[in-house]
Fold these 4 entries.
Entry 1:
Amino acid sequence: MNIWTNVFLSLLVIKIILVYCLNLRNQKHIKNAYSAIPNRFESFLTLPEHQKACLYTNEKLRFSLFNFSFSIIVLLIWTMGHGIESLTLWTQAHSPFTSIELTGLFFFTLFAGINFIIDLPISIYSTFVLEEKYGFNKTNAKTFALDILKATILSALLGGPLLYGILWIIKSFPIWWPYAFTLFAVFQIVLFFAYPKWIAPLFNKFSPLGNETLSLKIGTLMKNAGIDFKEIFVMDASKRSSHGNAYFTGFGKNRRVVFFDTLLKNLDDDETIGVLAHELGHFKLKHIQWGITKAFIILGFSFFILNTLSLSISFHQGHGLATMTNYSTLLLFSLVLPIYSFFVTPINSYLSRKNEFAADAFAAKHSKAEFLIRGLLKLYKNNSSCVTSDPWYSTFYYSHPPALERINALEKNG
């Protein structure tokens, strides 16, 4: 085994140990909290509601652990089990194309098809068993199948030309990473503009907000916050799930605020204003812009590293690939990168929680802390979100602050 093999397998073992330890710690913590509601939430949650949230959360944790274990096995088959190598050789022998770019597209189509077959049972179980068991699934077989079909067509229409362009750039330039990064970045920017107006409506129906009283309150909030949004939509999320949420999307003239219809059904106008103020806080405080900037920096660095490693025989052989092609290298790097980058997860989680606290403070300043607190409590309740978690687990993984920390901070700001 070369040094890459040793490093890869060592990091993989460390990741497996960390994931299992943190997951099992959180399961144990939630199990211990099952019999009694945490003091802060006694006046809001009933014991059956709290216990349902504990059971639902722990079942999701067990399922995520199974899914993680299965994904590691699949990763090892693709890498150390020479799966990418076998697929590369088969592609070279059977591809109907002569160009590297089209052969690469054929290769990735085969890989995507294999991955789809592998992942489909997991997706079906998550939707029609786990979510159904706790009363959240509203998706029927037709919607599920249509979503897959639409996503597949979109991936081919959008991802195909992008992948072709990247493969052409890799073939054409010795130092290709700046050009590949530029192409990918431009593609992402175009997607940011196109998604809310043309792509999202393929999956959901978006209707203008019809509540005039709420619209007036939203107008007052935006004026006070110095934000101008003209497009506020309600999305028919209820055709897939009963979970509620709201989000901000798009740029320029295509930017819009979107409420799930499930959220509007369960929250009153003031609570909705509190949730919206939080989302607007992310925009006003430039969290979204900084997030995109950070993503582009990471993307550029990743392309630079890939360019550096693309000619390394040791790197390829150390991860189970002997036949070096542009497309097999690209796939190998995309599969192993999460193992090497996993250990920055707690840093990303910390930065995300910091932004969430800041957006909460913005909401408390431009709305009322009480509105957001009430809205969050209802969301925790209606989504069966467990209001307690293991501190180590939440520190490592949570992109949002734990319920108690978040509400305590809001009460201080209020």
Entry 2:
Amino acid sequence: MQYEPILRENMPELDSVRGLAILGVIFYHGFFWLTDSRHFTLPEKMFVWAMWPGRMGVNLFFVLSGFLITGLLIDSRNRGDYYKRFYVRRALRILPAYYAILALLILIRLASWPFIGLSAIYLSNLTPLFGVAMAYPVLWSLAVEEHFYLLWPTFVRKLSFLNLAACSMLIITLSPLLRLVSFFLYRNNGFVDYVFTEFTWNASDGLACGALVAIGLRRLDIQRYQLRRVAFACVAAGMLVFVGCLPFGIWTTQRPIGAMLLVTAWNIIFVGLLMLFLLIGTSRWKSFVSNRYLWFFGEISYGLYLVHLLLFSAYDALVRHYFPTLRGSSSFSSLCLRFLVAATASIGLAYMSRRWFENPFLQLKDRLCSR
């Protein structure tokens, strides 16, 4: 049986991974986040709680981003325009929509000027350290990504592959320990639950996990059967960590074990999932991981991530003012209506943003940077 190479210039199965990640985030924010389900029926509560893993969609983005960005950097590390090419292409992809959403937050007065100022220089995940409330929560992960973009290209350029892998392993090891330290430092300061886990030094292990996969696939002679074993071992190990630590509160960052290992367990699972998608995507079964609907959501994922929480908040504000009986938490049917309306509006806006706002900037990539 003939297989395609694992690493290719175009890997459509990873667009499906991106689509899964953004859908997880949308369903988490649409059904679970801030929802009071105490008066729901048991099946309704179970459905709402089943949306909880969607919060880890951001961590799946991190693992995928670490893999893709590290791979791009490794493949171009000997180019003379290495830094220019990377930063120009990243700027054209990230900055227009990002600053557009900041302008919108100013226009609708949803965020304070200190938050906007810190977010403008990609410090939104660190605003609590400056005594500034995190006015628009989704921006934290973009700050982590930008810090990665700022530092990682130099690591890839200057370090040997062995040292780069060692650096990735160090980050993977230190981040959980730093989360535990942060838990005890900040638990009396109101940061416990999620905020301290969003500090860059506490949230970099997902990116490092993806980077390690990119390095390994390029430097090690790994056979498909070996990669398959590693993939299943990662999924099993991540699930074992999570299930084994359930009695100790791993599901919540308000407990020490959760603060330390919740993200770690999911990162390990996502590494395995990434490998499985690469394996299936290069086999005769690739149609199972190359879904056009997931591709669509992967294509608009950046804009959708930026705007979806804003549309959910807008729906809540309108309903609270004009139709208070339709509040999302008033009944499960109202919650479903909220999701249908706000999610559909978010998808439509993200599609228009990608087609008519983001794409013109993306088309400048090849003009400004040689291939």
Entry 3:
Amino acid sequence: MPHERFECRGFIRNFVASLKEEPRSLERILDLGSAIQNEPNFSISLFSSHKYIKGANGRSDYWSGFTPEKYNNSIVFFDPDIGFETRTQRGTKWIRHDELVGFLSHLPKTSVAVVYQHRPHRKWSDLFIDLKKSLSYVHTAVAAYERDLAFVALAGNASAGRRVIAAVESYAHEHGVVRHNVLKQSHV
């Protein structure tokens, strides 16, 4: 679907349009942290932006030099092409839960991971039921979603969990087409 059909702020539209420009590079993402006017700037860092991996077979090598404990107060974003593996979707495109377990165990308590999830040919409610069953390794999981895509935030403790739920709820409230679903919140 052409990006012009999505409702978004101008700086996002300009960014998406720029992705077609040659040479293609993830480095453009770095500019997004200062592109939001009248909002606090945030820093963006890219891990190994010069590497391109194709499927799960290359991911362990790609992440081998990453040290998650250095990313305090961060959102670590995973875009595994399609999203989480589910009971109906297994293969190299999808991020596996066992890949995230080790990563999240080393992430600082103030940080969260976010996984891009494309909606498969199923209802969100069905996908979320399946996903909940596989999230034993996180304290909190919350999804912000609309018709075709979701962002699933994962937190390893109650403090980060409360922060990310509040952020997702606020974002959904401000953007009428976005809904949210708390998939898991441990009370321990």
Entry 4:
Amino acid sequence: MTGLTLTPTWEIYSKQLQLLKEAVPRARRFAFLWNPANPAAPPAVRATEDAARSLRVELQVVSARAAEELEAAFQAMTHARAEALLVIPDAVFLTHGARLADLAIRHHLPTLYGLGDHVKAGGLIAYGQSVRDVYRRAVVYVDKILKGAKPADLPVEQPTKFELAINLKTAKALGLAIPQSLLLRADQVIE
């Protein structure tokens, strides 16, 4: 067995939380939205809790297993006075990206996602592995196998290229000024 994984190392959640804190420097209470039905989620929760402790911010972990639970999750975040939100990459959340973006704006929660598609759907910020780069590298793997390489001899690769995307339309809707230092590092800025 070989291939490429889209599952990032757990350090990415620390980086995402740092970027979100940089975008919303006055925030002290962060929410973390996860899907407990996703087997990759529990280690992500632990990694994000560790990151929150090191950044000395509060973290409220909120779950949603399906689209029907999103509204209640946002109400819980608002009730806990969350000032920003980090969303774990998950199929449920990706499928309902526009709804998540709308809820985040309605509840005035600057949000960072793990996949760039969320920013295209109206989300504020995304930081995560480049899916395009993973596809490009997959072609190299297929080529090697077609040329005779044994899949068992090829290592499973972790993501190596990460992208930062920012949606300035959403920032404006939230009344948020994105720091220039963050904009300069962005791979994609939607205006």
